Amino acid sequence: MHESLSTKLIIEHQYLFRRMSVIECDDGWFNIVSNMCSELSNIQGCFFQQIKESHGRLVTQLIGPDKAQCIADRYRELSTRICRLCGSDGEICHRGIQYQTLCYNHMIENKFKKGVDITATCNGCFDGLTSGHMFFLGYVKGQTQRLVVGINSDRYMIDVKGVEPMYTQEERKSGLLNLEIVDEVHTFDESNPIEFIKKVVPDMHFTGAEYIETCAEKQACDDLHISLKFVPRVGKWSSTKLREERKNEDRQV
After folding, report:
1. Are 206 and 215 within 8 A, CB to CB?
2. How confident is the chain (253 residues) per 10-residue block, as mean pLDDT?
3. Same domain flag for 76 and 175
4. DSSP state of 45
5. Digit-coded pLDDT (tens) for 151-181
6. pTM of the model as a whole
7. Contact between residue 87 and residue 61 where contact means Cβ atoms under 8 Å apart
8. How far is residue 238's CA from residue 90's CA, in Å, rounded to a whole number?
9. How many domains in the chain?
10. At 234, which CATH number?
11. Are residues 86 and 67 part of one domain?
12. Which of 45, 92, 159, 192 is 20 to 30 A from residue 117's alpha carbon, by CA?
């Protein structure tokens, strides 16, 4: 909160603020804090230890009777309907794992999303699901409500990667959608998932830990305020190994 506003409150309610001097929230919640102070000033033996924003809510730590805490709790819930920046009507929204209460205009301006459902993306060929794929997908789903998977197209695999897919892109898409943990599947022709990520605009994007130094989508994630996560590799199974084994079997036949 701007110093002039916090100073005004502290001077008006010196008894309440005798143990603290900084209000850790934005100007939009000035009236909420002011009204809360007015109610609490009538309660004997009550004073603040901390006032701050946490996960889109006004959190007040205080010393005082139960009645005082009930008042603080009521204003905490009220804060979830007031924009923390301008004081107009708002609601809790999110950007990745960061939550704030904002009005519609500030939500759009700061690239937050309405509601609390979190979307995550990941990508790959997924040409024959292995135990490694299942661990990877399960790991990602465990940190999100909605999992959107991007898969490389047949054209990319043949023309760019130089391999004949074991399964067509429609078969690979169908196989992923049959998994309860996958909510949506997109196909893309590009050599990296940047355009796929820009289309979905998830809250988080996951890729393998082996790509930490060479992650092509890092800049796009930074620009769109998308949290980039790296998943540890488990086991030695891969689609490439399965493809080689199938070729060997075909030669033997």
Report:
1. no
2. 94 93 94 97 93 90 93 94 95 79 90 75 92 92 91 94 91 95 95 93 91 93 88 67 51 47
3. no
4. T
5. 999 999 999 888 889 999 999 999 999 999 9
6. 0.55
7. no
8. 47
9. 2
10. 3.40.50.620
11. yes
12. 192
